[in-house]
Specification:
single chain, Glucose Permease (Domain IIA), 2 domains, eight-stranded antiparallel sheet, three-stranded antiparallel sheet
Length: 217
């Protein structure tokens, strides 16, 4: 387990705030009970930042026949829907909601070539809102594997999230299970799969990035 690089600024700000608040409490001789409350709140803040930006190590043996989960969280949507940005046809959508207590590293569900990548500024509706997939701040990526199958996955900001990060670009080669991005705080990842994909999860399932098998192509 390591601390993710996206968390360095947040941790530095949290430590600075903690230092200033506690220094002021000591300087103005705040009552002991107030100091203890501040100490506890300070510890909670730092621990919360550390746990949110944790980044567990993953060992994945790529398998072209499966689609791995791109993020930790809970399956909230499994349905056939119209994908209007890239495929412009019917696809099978699987959505994973990431709460603030989940690991927020995003990992590639398949290996292959990045054929499409686009960032969309937008709203910050709650991540489980039906329109969050099309109205919220989001980044859409499409990867084509060696067999020519394409999978679209979309990072979607939630009500708390204000920064989506991605580390790939079009024409990059990605490896199944490797990190491709990060979303700060509560958020969601949508997968759009070919109709007929065998889905191995159910709504309400808790899933783990680069470990849980979402489906089989």
């Amino acid at each position: 387990m390591k601390f993710h690089k996206e968390g360095y600024t947040s941790l530095a700000i949290a430590v600075l705030i903690v230092f200033i608040i506690n220094a002021l409490a000591d300087y103005y001789n705040a009552p002991d009970f107030l100091k203890w409350i501040l100490y506890l709140l300070s510890a909670f803040l730092v621990i919360a930042i550390v746990q949110f930006f944790r980044s567990p190590s993953k060992t994945v043996t790529p398998d072209e026949s499966i689609i791995l989960c791109p993020a930790d969280g809970k399956v909230v949507v499994i349905e056939e829907t119209q994908e209007s940005e890239y495929f412009k046809d019917r696809r099978l959508q699987v959505s994973i909601f990431m709460s603030p207590v989940n690991v927020h590293v995003n990992r590639s569900p398949i290996s292959g070539l990045v054929t499409y990548l686009k960032y969309h500024p937008g709203k910050f509706l709650v991540a489980w809102h039906p329109k969050s997939s099309t109205d919220n701040e989001r980044t859409t990526l499409v990867v084509k594997n060696a067999s020519g199958n394409e999978v679209l996955f979309r990072q979607i900001a939630g009500a708390m999230a204000r920064r989506i990060v991605w580390y790939v670009k079009e024409n990059d080669e990605v490896v199944q299970g490797e990190e491709f991005g990060f979303i700060k705080f509560g958020s969601r990842v949508d997968l759009f799969l070919p109709i007929g994909t065998k889905i191995d999860v159910n709504i309400g399932d808790k899933v783990t990035g680069a470990k849980t098998i979402i489906g089989r192509i």
